[in-house]
Amino acid sequence: MDGMAGVRALDQQAPAGWHAQLDLRFCRQDGHTVLAGRRHSGPLRVQKALYPEGPEPCHVVVLHPPAGIVGGDDLALNLHLEPGSQVCITTPGAAKWYRSAGPAARQRIDISLAGDCVLEWLPQETLVYDGAVAQLRTQVRLQDTARYFGWEVLCLGRRASGESFAHGHLEIETRIDAQGGPLWFERGRLAGADPLLASPVGLAGRPVCATLLMAGVAPQASLLDACRALPLPEASALAGLSWLPKVLVGRYLGHSAEAARDWLSAVWQQVRPELAGRAAQAPRIWKT
């Protein structure tokens, strides 16, 4: 039985978990972006639109009240930005994916960006407990002149508690499409105690890995040089930035989720003037 068939078989035998969906629609009205549509089912919510930077962008915090995600949970977040809207979305804390007795837990994020939109998707870290069985999928669709900046910080095991990622597995899929076709597609699977976690061609023994993606913006060489010159917050960390056709890709490997987010934030601060036409201002929730 292959891995995916095994997951399906376990899912059929296991009790259902939380099924939650949140649909958000943003549009531009009277010179600023508003949260024009909001629909939810299950424990996935957003409180209200915030404007800490003035009329643009609209800041939103996505909440998952149960805090932890367990086997059988299925979370879906659908974001639609209408022409000209600018949105910055984050989360109030780390997403905790707990140990599973068998069934997979799933998260699906679907993002649709119309022309001249800017979306900054800046969630806090994803903490994957030993024994978790998790599937994370993100789909981004860009129309002409739309811009996207997003990141994902993965922490495998609770290192502060002496826990490693020795059991379970994590599947990740990220896709960015434009009207001319796919810009980025990545699929990976990390299994507990897999030799790849320690291999120099894998995670090199570092339990924290992060990926940054920016599409719709062609950074100048001087901006890339400035980003690459940023100091690393951990002496043993590894990081790099690559400009692929139409996509900026950043990678970070280290031992601290906080340090990874510090590096991602530093890159964001560098590129944000080109991305959104203004200096970076961290979401207030990060300070609480």
Give a verbal description of the structure.
This protein has one domain. 14% of the residues lie in helices and 44% in strands. It has helices at 3-13, 221-228, 257-276, and strands spanning 19-29, 32-41, 45-46, 58-63, 68-69, 74-81, 86-90, 95-97, 105-113, 118-122, 126-128, 133-142, 147-156, 169-178, 181-191, 208-215, 238-244, 247-254. The strands form 2 sheets. Strands 3, 4, 5, 7, 8, 10, 11, 13, 16, 17 and 18 form an 11-stranded mixed β-sheet that branches. It has a 7-stranded mixed β-sheet with strand order 2-1-6-9-12-14-15, with no helix packed on it.
Topology:
Layout: H1 3-13, E1 19-29, E2 32-41, E3 45-46, E4 58-63, E5 68-69, E6 74-81, E7 86-90, E8 95-97, E9 105-113, E10 118-122, E11 126-128, E12 133-142, E13 147-156, E14 169-178, E15 181-191, E16 208-215, H2 221-228, E17 238-244, E18 247-254, H3 257-276
Parallel strand pairs: 1-6, 4-7, 5-8, 6-9, 7-10, 8-11, 9-12, 10-13, 11-13, 12-14
Antiparallel strand pairs: 1-2, 3-4, 13-16, 14-15, 16-18, 17-18
